[in-house]
Design goal:
mainly beta; about 725 residues; 7 helices; 7-stranded mixed β-sheet; single chain
């Protein structure tokens, strides 16, 4: 430990230096720690990498540093031999950074230089960049005494990793274990290094186990963590044979009978999306990012001023179609039966409806309101007209625009009204700047397809207006949240000629709008799809080709049906959330965590289940690698189902059974608890890759960005017999 060279402060400045400068000095009370406390004149240090410190003063006010020299001590506590603390200089001394005069300078001794239980002495010498202190500070002695660590937390899981006799032991985050200790069938404890690891592999030595002997070849594996402070409680796992199973033919907790693959089954058209009324926001988005203009809570009447004769016109609160007066509802049905598509040219078929409410796909949103127009005198209703107002927004097939179609259909106009006219007073793009989305402004009568003027109760024509909104897609990598809004000005002529004229306004956003209508436009795509728009709060569905690739579909179907987190199921409102690339902050793929054992699929898969020449077993993980739902995604990075190893997931494999049909079984020794949050399965590589072949196109067409929600339709259904522990089903492709 002693250095061969002896360090001595340089006492010889030049004459000019001596005349212009004064030497710095070390403080008289050097300190060592943590915890920087003394006992019987000796500093108590609880680490082998202590911090040493002392003050330094320069009469000229110059910044100075300190050189620290550490020595071993003899039985009487006196310095004995110098300790080499670094290879950065020939003396092995540590030098602090420069500090302001009167302040404390300090260094930290590198780990491995000092020994636990030993007493040391150190002193310091100052330097101001020109002159050295000619002496050392007083000695300070310190004793290193590190406390014994607390017992570490026990393992979070232990399971066979698919290789004969090998088990993966999962460790809790931030553990303090130095070793994992294991014991097979009450034999002597053995240990493997665990310091800094998230999991370790232990080899029990059980390389083979005869199938016929499995029933009698039960084993118990005990596993615990340990450090210098002791060992944790043990985690036990019972298993048969060598732990892998899969060829014993015994009754399985999971037994799904799969349909035979149909090689000619066409792949689903992922662009065809089911119309939905559901609002599903991106992960972590609690509310709209482009809210409508401020409005009172809930819809309310929108009224014009009171006239000289105390008359007033109002657009009433929208009424659901089923809540209309019976005579109005009957007339509406009769009119639509005569001409169901009247006035709605250009709208999608499912938007041509009397039904109130909002419906959407990822690229088309439609909302219908049954709107009363009320004429009052002295606050009392004199006459009411009813209109169906339907608005459709389409963002399909355009790189820098979207289309707004408004259709107004009169249901009933009371005879009291001599005429009603609707004027498009303004059209706006809310949540944007003019540079992002330009407001088209007011529309002229000539812009309408059939004028929005009704001059008698028998006038039932539809009026429609199509507006194109342009947005700026020149900035690459940009993302904008937009809403289209408009205000209609109603002009009502009541009574006899000439009759009074009343005016009132109706703003769409003031009438309980749906968050479905929030548009996101971005320029984060590629090639011809570089820019475009979608309805960000409408989750699209990715559909498996279950007929062609039943093994992958069956695996996902099982987990969607049985696990508590039911990932990707629309009816249970548990979407998958897209993670581009599936990569964690540490550079690992989520798949690396779930399929974390080399050759796991090969060791657990069965060649009888392969689909054609060249097909090999592949590790199929669910939820997918490219989702925040993946068990490999850390909670600290937004992960929803974090595990430390795929051994904590439901583990299955496919095999052709004696009946000649491929089944999906649980791996022997790994009966699911159904409390798992993920799954991995050794299935046909052809089925695994084929089932996801359309996903890149789906991501592109649906413009999925980070944390966007989507659904998974497995295309499977089953007839099952099950209880809390077992599930046995015959599956078919829908």
């Amino acid at each position: 430990m002693a250095s061969a060279a002896t360090y001595t402060p340089d006492p010889q400045p030049t004459a000019a230096q001596a005349a212009a400068n004064q030497r710095p000095t070390s403080g008289k009370n050097p300190e060592a720690g943590p915890p920087f406390t003394k006992k019987d004149g000796v500093w108590e240090v609880n680490t082998t990498a202590p911090t040493l410190r002392n003050t330094v003063t320069d009469p000229d006010g110059d910044k100075s540093n300190l050189t620290f020299e550490v020595w071993t001590t003899d039985a009487g506590g006196k310095p004995k031999s110098r300790v080499k603390l670094t290879d950065d200089n020939e003396y092995g001394v540590l030098v602090s950074s420069f500090v302001t005069s009167g302040k404390t300078a300090q260094v930290t001794v590198p780990a491995g230089k000092l020994n636990d239980g030993q007493t040391y002495a150190f002193h310091t010498s100052a330097f101001d960049g020109t002159l050295y202190e000619t002496d050392w500070s007083p000695w300070a002695t310190f004793k290193v005494s590190t406390p014994a660590p607390a017992k570490p937390a026990k393992p979070t899981g232990v399971a066979n990793n698919g290789k004969p006799g090998e088990f993966t032991v999962s460790l809790p985050a931030g553990h303090t274990a130095q070793w994992v200790e294991w014991q097979l069938d009450q034999s002597a404890w053995k240990r493997v290094d665990a310091a800094g690891k998230t999991s370790v592999t232990i080899d029990t030595g059980l390389r083979t186990a005869a199938t016929a002997a499995r029933a009698a070849a039960d084993h118990v594996l005990n596993v615990r963590t340990a450090n210098n402070g002791g060992a944790s409680d043990a985690v036990s796992v019972a298993f048969t044979g060598n732990g892998t199973g899969n060829t014993g033919g015994q009754d399985h907790a999971v037994d799904l009978t799969l349909p035979n693959p149909v090689s000619t089954a066409p792949n689903p058209d992922q662009t065809k999306q089911v119309v939905t009324g559901k609002v599903t926001r991106p992960l972590g988005a609690s509310a709209s990012s482009s809210p409508p203009p401020p409005a009172p809570s809930g819809p309310k009447e929108q009224c014009g001023p009171v006239g000289k004769d105390d008359g007033q016109a109002c657009f009433g609160v929208p009424v659901k179609f089923d809540d209309l007066p019976d005579d109005v509802k009957a007339k509406a049905k009769k009119l639509r039966a005569q001409d169901p598509a009247a006035g709605s040219d250009g709208m999608t078929d499912w938007c041509k409806t009397n039904n109130s409410g909002a419906l959407a796909t990822r690229t088309v949103q439609c909302e219908t309101k049954q709107l009363p127009v009320i004429y009052r005198v002295d606050g009392k209703p004199i006459a009411t007209a009813y209109f169906t107002m339907t608005r459709e927004i389409s963002v399909e097939n355009s790189a820098n625009s979207f289309t707004h179609r408004l259709n107004i259909h009169p249901i009933l106009i009371a005879p009291t009204f001599r005429a009603i006219e609707m004027v498009m007073d303004n059209r706006t793009c809310v949540g944007s700047t003019a540079a992002q989305c330009k407001d088209p402004g007011k529309a002229e009568l000539s812009d309408w397809d059939r004028k929005p003027i009704w001059q008698s109760p028998t006038d039932t024509h539809d009026a429609s207006l199509t507006t194109t909104y342009k947005w700026d897609n020149s900035a690459k990598g940009a993302e904008y949240d937009l809403r289209a809004d408009f205000m209609i000005k109603g002009l009502l002529i009541a009574g006899n000629t000439p009759g009074p004229v009343f005016m009132t306004d109706f703003r769409w956003a003031m009438s309980d709008p749906s968050d479905q209508e929030e548009i996101r436009c971005d320029t984060k795509g590629a090639a011809s799809a570089l820019s475009g728009c979608v309805f960000k709060n409408v989750a699209p569905s990715y559909t498996f080709n279950a007929a062609k690739y039943p093994q992958a579909a069956a695996h996902a179907w099982l987990l969607q049906e049985k696990l508590p987190n039911t990932m990707g199921v629309k009816t249970r409102d548990t979407p998958l959330y897209y993670l581009p690339g599936g990569t964690r902050a540490d550079g690992k793929k989520n798949r690396d965590v779930i399929c974390d054992v080399a050759n796991w699929a090969k060791d657990n898969g069965d060649l009888s289940a392969m689909d054609g020449a060249g097909d090999k077993p592949n590790c199929d993980e669910f939820a997918f690698n490219t989702t925040y739902n993946s068990g490999g995604m850390p909670k600290a990075e937004g992960g929803l189902n974090e595990v430390s190893s795929g051994s904590q997931c439901v583990q299955t494999f496919t095999k052709k059974a004696d009946d000649g049909v491929v089944h999906l079984y649980n791996i022997d020794g790994h009966a699911p608890t159904w409390h798992e949050v993920c799954g991995r399965s050794a299935i046909s590589g052809k089925h695994n890759s084929g089932s996801m072949a359309g996903f890149s196109g789906f991501v592109r067409n649906m413009r999925l960005l980070d944390k966007d929600p989507y659904w998974l339709e497995t295309g499977m259904s089953g007839q099952c017999k099950q209880d809390p522990k077992t599930v046995k089903c015959t599956l078919r492709a829908n």
